[in-house]
C-alpha cells in the first residue's frame, strides 16, 4: 500500500468542514535560498466570520507570523477563503524581512534560509472554540546541490503524480568519473591489477638478483680460503 504523501487534520463540531493538509515529508532547502512550507486550508462548509493562522518555530520557541482573517463572508463555493475575508498579516520582528504569507492558502515563505532555521514549525488555525495544529520539519543545508521543495512538488505528491520540476529528493551521486557516457570503473580496475603484477614481478627479480649476488660472494670467499 503506497504511503500517503500528506496528512489531513479534520475538525468536527462548531467548525465542521475545516481541513488542514500538510506534507508528511520534511522540507529541504539550501542555505540562502527560499523555503516554502506548504499547507492547504480548506473549508468545505461556510467560512468562519473570524479566524487566525499562527506559525511558530518550535525548535527555538517564538512566533513567526500571524494571519488574521476577519469579516469573512459567504459560503465556500468556488470562492477561496482568502478572497472572502479581510486579511491582516503580522510578522515577528526577527523575521520581519525574511518571512511572508504565500497569499494563497496557509503556506509560509521563508527567504534567505539559514542553518539555524532548521527545525520544526507549527501551524495553528484558531476559530471560535476551535483549534487545530500541524507540524512541518525544515532542514537547511550548506550544500547547493539539493533543490528546495516548491509548491509544484507538493501539489504533485498530493495528487500522487510527478513532474520534471525540482523536488527535495536528491539523486545518488556517482563517485566514478564519466565522460560522454562511458564508465571507467572496469578500466581503472584493470590498470590497478596490471600495476600490482608489475610490482610483484619487479620484487621477484630484485630478490633473485640479491640471492645470486649473495651466492657469488660466498663462492669467492671459499676460493680465497682455499
TrEMBL record:
InterPro entries according to UniProt: Ig-like_dom_sf, Ig-like_fold, Ig_sub, Ig_V-set
Keyword Membrane part of the UniProt annotation: yes
SMART domains: IG
Signal peptide: 1-17
Gene3D superfamilies documented for this protein: Immunoglobulins
Immunoglobulin domain segment(s): 24-141
Keywords: Membrane, Signal, Transmembrane, Transmembrane helix
TM segment ranges: 189-210
UniProt cross-references to Pfam families, sorted A to Z: V-set (PF07686)
Annotated protein name in UniProt: Uncharacterized protein LOC117668060 isoform X3
Protein encoded by which gene: LOC117668060
